[in-house]
Amino acid sequence: MSASSTGSGSALCRFAHYFVVCGIDTETGLEPDELAALYEWLEADRQGRDPETATKGENFDQSPLKRTFKSKVLAHYPENVECNPFDQDAVNMLCLPKGLSFRTQKDNRDPQFHSFLITKEDGTRTYGFVFTFYEEVTSPQICAAMQTLHQMHHAEHASSPTNPCPTSSSSSSSSTSSSSSSMDSLASSLDEAETPSSSSSQVSGAGSCGACSGSGGYDASRDTLYVSKALCLIAPMPFMHACKRFLEQLHRAVTSPQPPPLPLESYIHNVLYEVPLPPPGRSLKFHAIYQPIVCQRPGPRELPLADFPLGQAFQLLGVENLVQLFTCVLLEMQILLYSQDYQRLMVVAESINTLLFPFQWQHVYVPILPASLLHFLDAPVPYLMGLQSKEDTDRSKLELPQEANLCFVDIDNHCIELPEDFPQFPNKTEFIQELSEVLLHFGVSPEGGATSPTTTTTTTQNSTPGTELKNNVLKELVDDGRNGNIGGRAVDVLELLQGNATLERLQALAKRTGVSVGHLEALSRAHASTGEAGRDGGRMSAADEEELRNAKLTVQLREVFAGRFTAMFADYEAFVIQSAPDLESWLTNREQMHNFDKASFLSDQPEPYLPFLSRFIETQMFATFIDNKIMSQWEEKEPLLRVFDGRIEKARLYNVRAPSLRSSKYQKCTVLKESTQAIEQRLMKIDHTAIHPHLLDMKIGQGKYQQGFFPKLQADVLASGPTNNNRWSNRTATAQRRTDRHKQHSEHLGLDNDLKEKYMQEARSLGKSLRQPKLSDLSPAVIAQTNWKFVEGLLKECRMKTKRMLVAKMGREAVELGHGEASITGLEENTLIASLCDLLERIWSHGLQVKQGKSALWSHLLHYQAREEKVLQQQAESPVSNGSERRRSESGIGLPTLRVSLTQDMRHIQNMSEIKTEVGRARAWIRLSLEKKLLSQHLKQLLSLHPLTKRLYKRYAFLRCEEEKEQFLFHLLSLNAVDYFCFTNVFTTIMIPYRAVIIPIKKLSNAMTTSNPWVCVSGELGDSGIMQIPKNVLEMTFDCQNLGKLTTVQIGHDNSGLLAKWLVDCVMVRNEITGHTYKFPCGRWLGKGVDDGSLERVLIGELVVPASEEDGGRGSRTPPLQRSPSQIRRISITSLSGRGNKPNSAQIQESIGEAVNNIVKHFHKPEKERGNLTILLCGEGGLVGALEQFFHHGFRTARLFQKNVFVWDFIEKAVLYMENADQMGDLAEVPQPVSLNGDTLCRYVNAVNNTPRSIGKDGKFQLLVCLGARDQLLIQWLPLLVECPVITRMYEETALLRDRTTVNSLIGVLQTLHDFPITLETSLTKGIDL
């Protein structure tokens, strides 16, 4: 087999792919770390200095022992593996992320272990496990070079008057630049390769000059020089414990006085070529140098492999912090882990990743970010990254490019900084309680803050099976088992039972009902102890026990997390929309399709879950999960999905009872005990043992053993694997055949695989290609290319988000276009807007020159505001008038025009004392601009100040890419097509200035009145209370707590003075912050003896669409809200003069049906999103207007003495007749119910007549209808009015009210309202005593 293509077939099943050695290349000598040089280049470029000169000079300020030097991959075996090509730069960078570090005999030289991973373009991961130790430098050239560097460093410091002592903080020298750049402070805390020197040497060197004393200096004649060397195994799966133990034994062999039993090549060859991956559900033992190593792999129905110690992550952070971090990851925020220890970064990152089951992180994932890649923290996408801190680096000095959406995790100090506006994980308290119980069970403190993993052994779980077996017979059974004499039949029975799901369920059921299953349990315990006895002579080593304990703790904690998701998404399948006929058409139209019925899913969830779930189901990881579900109908299920679906199925089978309605009651995980059994069984009874290491066909005399030095290995024997077929190559062949079959099957589907991959890349993610920064080539050109990808990704995300927001809002048109259901819940809308705010923050923090404050957008706005105010000040000082005085609007409506001003909107936000933070202010400003339909215009104005943008942003920033910026503003402009109330509905407690104008009909009445007018404005959130209007003033302003959307205005006067009659055309009210203007049409008189004699009226409001918007976007405006009864309708009904407008009987019946239908629809919406019922009752097209038309049909038009006759007159007469008839006993023969109904009608009519309010006859009719609808009496009153003899005098023969069939059908329609609790606004029922 050739070295280059080693084991393409067998590599798939190999435990390890590569063995790598990194360290110093004695031939090239000491080279400064080129990545550090590249970093200097970027910084110089950013600060406007000449990058070339900046990187030429050596940094003599820093002690050579603290500088980073270039490391190299000294050897790697084999040369290449086809399925996992060797990436030399990435491996070198991650094996020694700080480059080479030097030590002397005085420094601490403890070996270190850490892991890393490399994510490839397609999302697959490769794991690396690194053991770093210090090896003595034997090359005289390198020692001499180090001596020279030290002398130069000493000379530099001696000549520098400002810094006589070289041991003074080296960070000060690197952060002398005055700029508070987003990266400068990172550089100062990261560029020195800080030595974790022992405390004693730190103390000794503290008071004296480092170059002169021994502490910081190096003297070749006196000191021994050591340099770091890394041994690394690269493996396809994260078998961390096994790899760590192998590398530890390898290091032990190098440092031991005795040479190892075989040459090191034998062991490395064995682990590379002769140790297979354990098959799923099996364990494997292979032999290292001194002790055997066991690893195991979960079965297909278990949670996937996770070998990083989860308990350690909980110890480092504490349960509370870890759950909060977990929530941030689920919501795809930016996560930055921070620790001195690379392994801690890796443990926390991988732990969080394993807890996401069944979901997977879809974005940038770099658990160890090398210092040269710091510019990646600028990435405007969600990321999960780990950054190494240095000793004594203060978090406050660490300025990060963007913090608005950042979760910062300081692992070493056990603390976490959360983003604002952060929903809690459902049932968080009970969830934390359950996790704490599991941790305490294993002797781990839930508080966290333990700096090193404790090694306490648990008391209950690890007790030997023998102590539990009191019964002598069972003891004998166990003894027999130890001797291998356990009855064959018993073992068969046990294995049969353990593999049978039905019997498992019966056993669980038996336990629940209290039936003893002791024999079976004893059998399984006996069986387990047999396995234990058979291993290592019956005793587990302390390391094995610790590993088992860690594995059990990890799996139990994971089960608790998995159980939460199983409970929360138990019925997710019901909401998956399967719309495509085949895979190809689904992939092609993926972006246009709705895959999940979000609104219905959320409406089915318990209220407390909604803030979290509404945001979670918008994430990329949830979208990918649903995509995998849909694709599983055409191809094999994705493994995580298969396990998850299996669990949901199992939960359904166990819950034999009918599934209860969804509740937020917390259900504990029930499988904790079972989950650890499989792990124990695999460890007790090893399934496979690999070939032992053996002598290879090597040249004799090479690679002589020398204590403390890792030998130069013989490359030819390690370049390729054994040629003979070993025991597991057959499995490889089978796997290969299966892969080929699967490949043929996919091709048979008729979809080119490359095309499919392209679609999936497109469909699934914005920035999935950026999951892993390219570690190999870091030229400025590559960095520019990466930033360009970010710009494209941000633009695409903006397009998707605005489209989603439009589709969700556009209602019926969207449904007709095939976009699924039209309903959008307020919660969902809020989630979409929150995610738009997050996107804008990410765009504004991309490519920042200087970091100021936590919100990049608000910081930019403040710069703009300061400049504008300066300009205004200059204008005010100059005598020339600036002509900015706006004329009053000429439309005849008395509201002065509201000036559109970016800075004015900022001032509104700054005046809101409720908002305390910059991020909060930026979000409030975005919401306000969106509600005012000015977001795109404001941002365009903000970015039009090119000098400011240039000063704040680097060349590659999104905001400096002209074409993309224009497209971005265009996408935001599209949001003006729909109405948002995202500011009004969120900030419900703020004080808002309102302006009200009363517009009289001047031609027909006095513009002024001598009486004292008053007004009361009501909205969905409350009312203003009655406010007196100053005499002869038609305009007033008032401050009031946010009323929400305005619904009604009550207007009236006290009828005093000579000119007490007032003909009001309408009332206009404007919210002075959002600019929303409401018109409340009236068109009626207010005064005694005129019209219907009303002194006050309740007017129903409608939102006015601004004129500019009608002209500019006529085609795109949303339909107006329900309007209040128009003037024409009122006049045609009351004075009956507009004969041309009279509706016919069919139209009247249709309008009643429509009005009732609207009320029914109102109650079918979720409670928080119903809007205003008053409009549906009293507004235009409302129930009152429709019934008024019904009663007016065929009403006799004769005017007696020119006096209008109203429907209320008919009702009063009918009531009078009933009361008289009742007194005369005419109703004695009438059945009891009819008589009772007559009583209630009389009582209600009298109550309306006796109200102290002067609401006029039409107002009284409106009130009666509303009360009848509320108390479900309308259908009882109608027959009474029809039966009343008064009807013949006041109605024509053809009137609808005299047609029995029509009246009966009307009763049937009104009957449907009885299912709903109608509540009336206080503005309607004020003064009614019933």
TrEMBL record:
Residues in RUN domain copies: 827-988, 1174-1325
Region (Disordered): 154-207, 447-467, 721-748
Subcellular locations according to the entry: Membrane
GO CC, alphabetical: membrane
Span of domain PLAT: 992-1100
Top-level taxon: Eukaryota
Keywords assigned: Guanine-nucleotide releasing factor, Membrane, Repeat
CDD domains the record matches: PLAT_RAB6IP1
Compositionally biased region (Polar residues): 721-736
Gene3D superfamilies according to UniProt: 1.20.58.900, 3.30.450.200, 3.40.50.11500, PLAT/LH2 domain (2.60.60.20)
UniProt-listed InterPro entries: cDENN_dom, dDENN_dom, DEN5A/B, DENN_C, PLAT/LH2_dom, PLAT/LH2_dom_sf, PLAT_RAB6IP1, Run_dom
Stated family: Belongs to the RAB6IP1 family.
Database matches in PANTHER family: DENN DOMAIN-CONTAINING PROTEIN 5B, PINSTRIPE, ISOFORM A
Stated name of the protein: DENN domain-containing protein 5B isoform X4
